[in-house]
Amino acid sequence: MPGRFITLEGGEGVGKSTQAAMLADTLRSRGIEVVLTREPGGTPGAEAIRALLLDSTLEIGARTEALLFAAARADHVEKVIAPALDRGAWVVCDRYIDSSRAYQGGGDDLFDDAIMALHQIGSWGLLPDLTLLLTADNAAVAARLAARDGDKPDRIGGRSAAYHAQVAERFRTLAASDPERFVSIAADGSPGEVHERIMRAMAGLTGEGG
User: Fold this and answer.
1) Using an 8 Å Cβ cutoff, are 38 and 17 in contact?
2) CB burial class (10 A; 0-12, 13-18, 19+) of residue 162?
3) Do 72 and 46 touch, CB atoms closer than 8 A?
């Protein structure tokens, strides 16, 4: 049986990491080999780039940022994602190419075709089988971010509300343009309630409901 590639996307504070871990645990309980990973990161080289990208003391231009994300993703795909899929494992990834398209292509106004060209060069244009887009209202997100980051947000999380609104709008546009790959998931409620919504959305891949 071929592997499956599932990504979780969305803005800051919508619970992607929590839901990715819960999804991986549920799939493993069904006897599926799962690689749980994240972006930027997933390999030593990509984690080093992650530390650079999130360092709030650095000033990094939008184009440099896009190139760094693409480089981290190329290493991640080559060393972790592609080998796992080739051996039939499932990959659950917290963020992937659509975050670059939303953050750099939406918040920073880079052209989507430029970002996708980098993806084609670095990562063979590999796209997920399913992308779960978690959405939540601004007040809920602000509360989660305050609990998570306090007064020390990272370089990207600490950007303006207007920037993050652009990112959220860009995610919605991406989901609307590719409804066969994207499923929007309301991230309000308890983690368990959100997980149930995700498992219902996964039914087509797993062959059973959540």
Assistant:
1) yes
2) exposed
3) yes
* C-alpha to C-alpha distance for 112 and 99, rounded to whole angstroms: 11
Distances, alpha carbon 27 to alpha carbons 42, 128, 196, 203, in Å:
20, 17, 13, 12
Inter-residue contact 134 to 9 (CB < 8 Å): yes
pLDDT tens by residue, 78-89: 999 999 999 999
Contact 66, 100 (CB under 8 A): yes
How far does CA 6 lie from the centroid of its chain?
9
pLDDT in tens, 112-137: 999 999 999 999 999 999 999 999 87
Preceding amide of 44 cis, omega within 30: no
Looking at the chain, list the stretches that DSSP marks H as alpha helix, in order from N- to C-terminal side: 16-29, 44-54, 62-76, 82-86, 97-102, 112-123, 138-149, 161-177, 191-201, 203-206
pTM here is 0.90
